[in-house]
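As a warm-up, study this chain.
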Amino acid sequence: MLRKVSTLSTAFALVAGVLLSTPAYAAVSNGSTCTVLKKTVKASGFTYRCVTAVKSTVTLDGDKTTIYLPASAKTKNAKRYYLSTDCVTESAAYAKSVTDLSALEKSTATALLAIDAQITEQNAKSVNVQTQIDALIKENADIALKIQEQTDLIPVAQKEVVELTAKIAAVTKQIDDFTVILNDSKAKLATLRADTVNAAKNATTITKLATAISQLTTSITSLKSSNSSTKIQMQSVNGSISKYNSSILQLRSTTSKNLASIENSKKIGSTITTLNKTKELTASQLQQAKDALAQTKSSRNLICSAGL
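Now compare it with the structure written out below.
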């Protein structure tokens, strides 16, 4: 929402205080020229800062009034002037309010379109309310059956995950055991091959060990492949469980929406009245924001008036 600003009466009181407390020969006021940006000076209890600003003429309380406003980086022909810190602050507040109002106008337009669409929808529903209620009740009954079906599938899948997990653990242990035997066999084979003195005597044993090593290597590779397939299968089952849970949540969400629609259908008249009041309130809030912006602008113009 737009920033709430001081009333114009407060702003006038502030300016009146400046006029009464500042002597005619005061060296600094809004619009006094300066050279060093950001330099501050005090006069009659008020602080003025050297900023890049522009001179402008506005109508204030029916009279033409010269004001000085802080310039943006894109402002052309800006010069250096002293402005009161109140002027700088109020100008920033006004700039923010302009941006906020623009956003509020867009969101309000969108909201009003949505409200109108809801009113149209509610009017259409009022033509045959009971038929709509009966259809929603039937849909919820069908959804309840689907939820039960999905719910029943979850423990079955969970049991499968437990079995697959146990299978993976068993195969993993078998792989580890075979790996130990394989490494031991390789070590023995290396020792026998190194014993060249008894090469003829060890030939048969070497051949058997080499064959066993080959078979063990093949078995380990097969077991690892089996484990990989089992892990992929378990991931798929876990994915199914997630889908079941997600489906159940969506179905329950649909059921809740249908129940809300049933309640709304039972009170179509009051709903339409409420929507119309909401529409009026939304439009009223936008107008209040515009009025507040106009007040902020007047306050800014007053505080930023030349010579204050």
